[in-house]
Design brief:
Belongs to the DNA repair enzymes AP/ExoA family. With 265 residues, the protein is an alpha+beta fold. The chain is built from 7 helices and 12 strands. It is globular, with a radius of gyration of 17 Å. Strands 3-4-2-1-12-11 form a 6-stranded mixed β-sheet.
């Protein structure tokens, strides 16, 4: 089995003080994809930067205190790549991939955006560059007899079932028609599979992010924006997928919850 977890840590230094270290020590995952790490590697305690039993790859953002993605793997990767060939985004701490036997696993932190601002324009530019890369990656992997798994915070809720208050968010970044259409193209045109949705086709959620404002977590008023996006061959081998939702608000070490899936090798 191959067990993969993705988690937006909302600042790795802060998460490490709230329970992330204990969670990592207890996880059965073979691969952990982290997003919104924010810290430079040298700013992290040794046990967080290079945890025992893991091979860690960090891709911080050039802009300090922003973004940042990491990949932790039990075995040493055969190849590591930071970025996806984008002049604008390769230094922004938003993408890192690694080759393991038979599969390329990536950690993605897609820009969050904000309607009517440069942040939304940046997000749309990212989408425009990233889709062709996903197509190329899938083709390249197929030629090598490999599968692909892109995990992370995609910052888009694809369907109405992917967020609690969808009617109130139809004009919000993360649920705009053009964003949802783009993610649909990832599945329909590029041929990837939303693994968690394929395992839970008829339910709302399971949500992976809840605002710290109000009682969003207690009321399960969340968004499903953290995805396992896989090539069909790997998706078909998924036997279990779930959100590691904390038992209570104080037990959370991020505003996101880890999303884990188990694949037959």
């Amino acid at each position: 089995m191959l067990t993969v977890t993705t988690a937006n840590v909302n600042g790795l230094r802060a998460a490490a003080k709230k329970g992330y270290v204990e969670w990592l020590a207890g996880t059965a995952a073979d691969v952990v994809c982290l997003q919104e790490v924010r810290a430079e590697p040298q700013q992290l305690p040794e046990e967080v930067r290079q945890p025992e039993g893991w091979h860690a790859v960090h891709a911080p953002a050039a802009a300090k205190g922003r973004a940042g993605v990491s990949l932790l793997t039990r075995r040493e990767p055969d190849r590591v790549q930071v970025g996806f060939g984008s002049e604008e985004f390769d230094g922004s701490g938003r993408y890192v991939e690694a080759d393991l036997p038979g599969v390329t696993v990536a950690s993605l932190y897609l820009p969050s955006g904000e309607v009517g601002t440069e942040r939304q324009e940046e997000k749309m530019r990212f989408l425009g560059e990233f889709l062709p890369y996903l197509v190329e990656l899938k083709q390249r992997a197929a030629a090598d007899g490999r599968e692909v798994l892109v995990c992370g915070d995609w910052n888009i809720a694809h369907q109405e079932a992917d967020l609690k208050n969808w009617k109130a968010n139809r004009k919000s970044s993360g649920f705009l028609p053009e964003e949802r259409e783009w993610l649909g193209r990832v599945f329909d045109e590029a041929g990837y599979v939303d693994v968690v949705r394929s395992m839970h086709p008829d339910r709302e959620g399971p949500y992976s992010w809840w605002s710290y404002r109000g009682r969003a977590f207690d009321n399960d008023s969340g968004w499903r924006i953290d995805y396992h996006v896989a090539t069909p061959g790997l998706a078909a081998r998924c036997v279990k997928a779930w959100v590691e939702r904390a038992g209570s608000h104080p037990e959370r070490w991020s505003d996101h919850a880890p999303v884990t899936a188990v694949y037959e090798r």
